[in-house]
Amino acid sequence: MSFYNQLNLFRWEDIEKEILSRTSRDVERALSARFLDPDRFISLLSPAAEASLEDMAQRSHRLTEQRFGRVISLFAPLYLSNECTNSCVYCGFNLKNPVERLTLTVKQAEAEASFLHALGFRHVLLVSGEAPQVVTVEYLSQALKKLRPWFSSISIELYPLPTEKYQTLIAQGVDGLVVYQETYNEQRYREVHPAGSKSDFRWRLDTPERGGMAGFRRIGIGALLGLSNWRVEGFFLALHARYLLRNFWKSHITLSFPRLRPAAGGYEPPYPVSDIHLVQLIIALRLFLPDAGVILSTREAPYLRDHLIPIGITSMSAGSRTEPGGYAHDIRAEAQFEIADHRSPKAVAEIIKKKGYEPVWKDWDAAFLQ
């Protein structure tokens, strides 16, 4: 049974009402419980839990240290292409946006890799728009041959693929898969993904499971905050992660919850998420999922990223560029979205140290298995 079947056991509206109905007493019961089940977790997502955020943050801090130590892993996205066949209303890569398009040559991609390697990165996330006829598996295979020597860990955030294609990429050195559902509200999903292959809700939702069956060492999922009610998104994101943890226990599951940022097209999020609500979501998820990695990107402002380090974060991007050729090339190409933290990787690493944590540039090495 796939997670899609579990998702359909719940109605979005019912979960929303349940979250809003919780009281401070419900929150106290959840925090005093020996373990959190989904019902208790709902209380921590509720408005009633906002009065207990300090207590929750301290618990999240202790739990994260117990599971992960005082370590923050660093990575960088490397955009291969901004060409896309989808019409996602919130994205700068939207097919309908009249923007500069570019797909890096393998040589250009290697130059980007060399640049990031010189900054200290040994973990890279390869990203592209969803254009399977442009960023083909064959193109990826050629690029991986050149990129693999530069990094000990390579993850991909591309268009969803069948299991056998993922197995091909794993054999060529890819060890991580990232795919965000964007929103778990199927009706809302159809509204914001009106055309293109991404409009298939079920195919995308099943992607992490195909990745787990293929054997990825790390699988990242997430929700794009601002499309729907963040409290309900958090509930279904947590259920999805728990399902993956139970069914693909050999894979490390990571969570991300990027907030919508300005991008070409000027989309305004209908459900904006405040800083305090982002904090609540992070610590509630940590308490419910002690063993899941939590990723924070440069979408967030420096002051917020710095303050979130001790309360549940395990991995951060740094010095990110969200357009192809953004590191080593003077090329005009549209970015996927605007970033908020423009500090250099070195500056981010120094802040991590000042917080009493160790920045780790090398997330993983295949040699560990030899």
TrEMBL record:
Cofactor(s) it depends on: [4Fe-4S] cluster
CDD domains: Radical_SAM (cd01335)
EC id: 4.1.99.19
SMART domains reported in the protein's UniProt record: BATS
SUPFAM superfamilies per UniProt: Radical SAM enzymes (SSF102114)
Keywords: 4Fe-4S, Iron, Iron-sulfur, Lyase, Metal-binding, S-adenosyl-L-methionine
Keyword Flavoprotein: no
Alphabetical list of InterPro entries matching this protein: Aldolase_TIM, BATS_dom, rSAM, rSAM_sf, ThiH, ThiH/NoCL/HydG-like
Domain Biotin and thiamin synthesis-associated residues, every copy: 256-359
GO molecular function: 2-iminoacetate synthase activity; 4 iron, 4 sulfur cluster binding; iron ion binding
Name of this protein: 2-iminoacetate synthase ThiH
The species this protein was found in: Candidatus Desulfatibia profunda
Chain's gene name: thiH
